[in-house]
Amino acid sequence: MRPSIAASVLFLSTSALADTWTVDNDGSADFDTIQAAVNAAADGDVILIAPGTYTSNSDAGVVSISSKSLTLQSSGEPALTILDGQHERPVISCFTCPSITIEGLTITRGGYNESQMDGGGIRCWASGMTVSNCIISNNSISMGADGGAGMLCKSTYYDDIYDPVITNCTFENNHCANYGGAIEISLSTPTITGCTFADNTAAMGGDDIYIWYDSYAYINDCEFCGSSAPIEGPHSGSGNLFLSDCPTPCPDLNSDNLVGVADLLYVLEHWGQAIQDDPDGNDICDSSDIAILISAWGPCP
Known about the structure:
The chain is an alpha/beta fold. The chain contains 4 helices and 29 strands. The strands form 5 sheets. The chain has a 9-stranded parallel β-sheet, covered by helices on one side. Helix 2 links the parallel strand 1 and strand 2. The N terminus is likely disordered.
């Protein structure tokens, strides 16, 4: 009995040390920025992010994490909790992190200028990572940089091979001038399950996923559309669906599978502002969005 009691006490003590930090850019939470919460957090802590749009002026990224194990989680809908790289910086960068969980966020407009490196939306470098229920969209990598516009999974020859887990995410409209429009994989063995890949492109190979010879990917129950070369490189899996064209998305802004008054009010509330996945795709709430909502009024197909 003594070893069991000791183990229980150790577990409770470790759990008690974990904190939850709240982030809201309206000044009502523990922190106004995600990076400030990351800097304060210790291993095992949860950073709970309120709906809103978060960005940064740092070249390191909207969020940069090094050598920590943390959870970044939305307290609301993914479509309304937006991390925006403004096409000037990566969105989330993780370096040698034992364990990172990213859940329920929109990760958008990440990218580098020609002097910078790879991984526009999420840069997972020599890190253990779980990404779930996220929207990873409109990220880009230029010719001067490397690959993985939506996400980079990479280790080095001097680090352990990591096994990222990517589940129930949407990768859409990510564009790379090199390899891996949505995801580039190097020295990693990720498992990708239940994800949607739509209208991603890569000039050199792997519009959706590019896997280098030193890696392997397990891809199951995913849907691919709008790309000529969805997956390139060593992989296996089952239950995947490949479509030449992507279906027209339902303009449902609050993820209740219904186009209605709540969506209309959201557009009016954010009139003239930049939001992610507005109905007409120009990232600005305007009159054309209202016209699309009215034409699609009712339950989503």
